[in-house]
TrEMBL record:
GO process annotations (BP): protein O-linked glycosylation via mannose
InterPro entries to which the protein is assigned, alphabetical: Glyco_trans_8, Nucleotide-diphossugar_trans, Xyl/GlcA_transferase
Keyword Manganese listed: yes
Name this protein carries in UniProt: LARGE xylosyl- and glucuronyltransferase 2
Cellular component, GO annotation: Golgi membrane
Stretches for region Disordered: 78-123
Gene3D superfamilies assigned to the protein according to its UniProt record, in alphabetical order: Spore Coat Polysaccharide Biosynthesis Protein SpsA, Chain A
Residue intervals passing through the bilayer: 12-29
Sample GO molecular function, one term: metal ion binding
Necessary cofactors: Mn(2+)
CDD domains in the record: GT8_LARGE_C (cd06431)
Compositional bias annotation for Basic and acidic residues: 111-121
Subcellular location, principal: Golgi
Native organism: Merluccius polli
Length: 791
């Protein structure tokens, strides 16, 4: 009997244990399927076996999450999708988020989910795709602000799904830079208008302003006058703004304005207007903490109706009687106006203007950075093919997983504002995250933003129509198709990437050259040898341009030179468009004469002053002359540079220097007649010969380089040939010289040497150039064809 009972007890215990184990496994599988790991009960967690099992479960889940993270990043990079966010919700601190736009919101729609048997993505903005042209206004002056504007525009274009119209109030410098940039960028469904800031200065010049932005920091007050009278609404942005969402969401808030509201602003996130920053601190009057004017929704039609121009003037005049000047430019006047007319303002949630200046309360606009990253990732899960309304099944699963992680503290970051003079060096607990987001757009390839708004009707520009026609004329079966395609490629151009200040004289000469990243080390040496103005075109990617910027700003030599114009031509295509890049540098020289050189040559010391005297003595203003600067080379990376012609001749005799390319391409410089140059004391004329390619000084109105020649071969030869066709006299200067410094061979010369098809296409382009020259100059150009056939 005892044995029977003992057997039944064992069976009962075994059955009970099996039930517990199966239940535990079931719960484990269910929780893992829902994206959560099983937390063991306290009574089981203390056992070693349970701890090992729990650790294994967690490690497995971590690996799954990492794999899903990689998949999300891959999808985002491939789609370049626009981040679709839910409408503004009541997130976090009421002081910062409360407005007419906030309120409880759940991204799920249970009824629709049941009816359609799917999970909905984050809600679309109230402005539907393609339906609305969004107007964006910005005041931009100077070289630095123009660079900032490009990053702002990139962040907007990356997320946008609507046509855009940018309105820029600019000075002369910014207008030249931005007009060239947008004309060469050719972004579909983007219009750009410019307004002269000089015409608006009289409207605000009477206001004393201590802010570092100067008079341009007051110009947003004049927008009702500056912008077209038929423009009813505009989003107004500072240049130091970065978008992390579709700007259409912000535009959609106009629909939530009451009938009396005319302006939308985010509350200021510092204590400035509270007047407690230091003893005797007396700010301008403001409503509570005041408002920040880095992001403004301006209802222009209503502002004109309430006579805004008169109202802000009266406000400014009244306050200046006691305040004497503004400290925060237009922001002080806007706040004083709102203090008197609070009913006119619509307060935006603070995440529409997260202000990253020192000692702000911006952290109350978002959660910890780790949560923020998750929120951004979840917001970016979209279906590029289907638009924002639905997610594909795989993306919906990913979205639900991210949402399950962040549901207790959902936050959507919208706009970052670097509103401190320190900019990226600002003190902020999460500055690394924000800096990385900013750098993403700073170095983002702008060519990728030329994409069409698929599904949206767009009106083609004359330039795009011409480009499309040229592309259709090309024969893709032509073995030289890539060369011909490169000739019509439109490269983005950013003029005056760094500050340029120079007033030329009547006899002034600019050194004109081009370079890529692999020749960057030559810049400092050239600047030491040539004290005059320089026009440099740099062929770089967006990321390389930022590397160059950091290099130039850190260089003791370069950062002190304000007479060097740096013009960035952004990379596109497989060839180096050397003559296009040269032409950019040539067009933007602002002196009467130009010295057409290459960046791997160092001019002799004092050459700048010598050339200025030569252009006067040879009367180049009234005659067609090309002054030849004899070229030499060294094979030594370290060279004691000759200080005179006599010292150079000595080094030439000793074998330290050579005439340029005498052992590789003698014909390129042989017509210079180095033997005569050794003893010459006055300029002498030489005749053109086939393949002659000297470095010359000419008037700025000389012919441009022929852009059909890309990469290596005939890019300078063709230019000298056209100078000769236009009857320029080639005059060799007796006391001038330049020396080529050694460097690794370029990628293009390697292709020329290794590819028969490359050389065949170059021959074809030569023949076509000769034919074009004959059509252009008639019988005078026959000698070039004859010379070529006699080679």
């Amino acid at each position: 009997m005892y044995l029977l009972c003992r057997g039944r007890v064992k069976l009962l215990v075994a059955s009970f244990t099996a039930v517990i184990l199966l239940t535990w496994l079931y719960l484990l599988a269910g929780n893992l399927e829902n994206g959560r790991s099983l937390l063991l009960a306290p009574c089981l967690a203390d056992t070693p076996a349970a701890q090992v099992l729990e650790r294994a479960v967690l490690e497995s889940r971590v690996r799954e999450v990492e794999a899903e993270n990689r998949q999300i990043r891959l999808q985002l990079s491939q789609s370049q999708g626009t981040a679709v966010q839910p409408q503004e919700g009541n997130y976090g601190n009421q002081q910062w988020g409360a407005s007419a736009d906030t309120g409880p919101e759940d991204v799920e729609n249970t009824a629709e989910e049941k009816n359609n048997n799917h999970t909905e993505c984050p809600r679309a903005p109230s402005v539907q795709k393609c339906e609305q042209l969004i107007h964006v206004a910005c005041v931009c002056a100077g070289h630095n602000a123009s660079r900032d504007v490009v990053t702002l525009v990139k962040s907007i274009l990356f997320h946008r799904r609507n046509p855009l119209h940018f309105h820029f109030i600019t000075d002369t410098v910014a207008h030249r830079i931005l007009s060239t940039l947008f004309q060469s960028w050719m972004v579909p469904s983007v219009q750009v208008s410019f307004y002269d800031a000089d015409e608006l200065k009289s409207e605000v010049s009477w206001i004393p302003n201590k802010h570092y932005s100067g008079i341009y920091g007051l110009m947003k007050l004049t927008l009702t006058k500056a912008l077209p009278s038929n423009l009813s609404k505009a989003i107004v942005l500072d240049t130091d703004i970065t978008f992390a969402t579709d700007i259409a969401e912000l535009w959609g808030i106009f629909q939530k304005f009451t009938e009396k509201q005319v302006i939308g602003l985010v509350e200021n996130q510092s204590d400035w207007y509270l007047g407690n920053l230091w003893k005797n601190h007396k700010p301008w009057p403001a409503l509570g903490r005041g408002f920040n004017t880095g992001v403004i929704l301006l209802y222009l039609e209503r502002l004109r109706r309430i006579r805004w121009e008169q109202m802000w003037r009266l406000t400014a005049e009244r306050e200046l009687m006691s305040m004497l000047s503004t400290s925060l430019a237009d922001q002080d006047i806007f706040n004083a106006f709102i203090k008197q007319n609070p009913v006119l303002v619509h307060q935006l949630p603070c995440f529409w203007n997260v202000q990253l200046s020192d000692h702000t309360r911006s952290e109350q606009c978002y959660t910890e950075v780790s949560d923020l990253k998750v929120g951004l990732a979840a917001a970016s899960v979209v279906d590029p093919a289907q638009g924002h309304q639905r997610c594909p099944k795989k993306d919906r699963t990913l979205f639900l997983f991210w949402r399950s992680l962040i549901k207790p503290f959902v936050v959507w970051l919208k706009v970052i504002h670097w509103n401190s003079p320190k900019k990226l060096r600002v003190k902020n607990k999460h500055v690394e995250f924000f800096r990385n987001l900013y750098l993403t757009f700073l170095e983002y390839d702008g060519n990728l933003l030329r994409r069409e708004l698929f599904g949206c009707p767009s009106q083609a520009t004359p330039e795009s129509i011409l480009l499309q026609a040229s592309l259709e004329d090309l024969d893709e079966d032509d073995q030289c198709y890539d060369f011909r395609r490169e000739r019509i490629t439109v490269h983005r151009v950013h003029l005056y990437f760094l500050q340029y200040e120079y007033t030329p004289t009547e006899d002034d000469v600019t050194l004109v050259a081009q370079l890529s990243m692999d020749r960057l080390q030559m810049l400092e040496a050239i600047c030491k040898h040539w004290e005059g103005p320089i026009s440099l075109a740099l062929y770089m990617s967006d990321a390389e341009a930022q590397q160059f910027l950091r290099y130039a700003q850190a260089s003791e030599v370069l950062k002190n030179r304000k007479n060097v114009g740096y013009h960035v031509v952004y990379k596109e295509g497989q060839f180096y468009p050397v003559n296009l890049v040269r032409n950019v540098a040539l067009r933007n020289a602002n002196t009467p004469y130009v010295f057409l050189a290459d960046v791997d040559f160092l001019p002799m010391y004092g050459l700048y002053d010598y050339l200025r005297r030569a252009v006067v003595q040879l009367d180049m203003a009234h005659t067609k002359k090309a002054l030849v600067v004899p070229a030499f080379e060294t094979l030594r990376y370290r060279l004691s540079f000759p200080k005179s012609k006599a010292e150079l001749l000595s080094m030439l005799d000793m074998g330290t220097l050579y005439t340029f390319r005498y052992h590789v391409w003698t014909k390129g410089h042989a017509p210079t007649n180095y033997a005569k140059w050794r003893t010459a004391t006055t300029p002498y004329k030489v005749e053109w010969e086939s393949d002659f390619e000297p470095y010359v000084v000419v008037r700025r109105d000389c012919p441009e380089y022929d852009q059909r020649f890309v990469g290596f071969g005939w890019n300078k030869v063709s230019h000298i040939m056209e100078l000769d066709a236009q009857e320029y006299d080639l005059m060799v200067l007796p006391n001038a010289f330049m020396i080529h410094m050694p460097h690794a061979p370029s990628f293009d010369i390697s292709k020329f040497r290794s590819s028969p098809s490359y050389r065949n296409c170059l021959g074809t382009l030569k023949d076509e150039f000769h034919q074009d020259l004959s059509r252009k100059y008639g019988s005078a150009a026959l000698k070039y064809l004859t010379a070529q056939r006699n080679i």
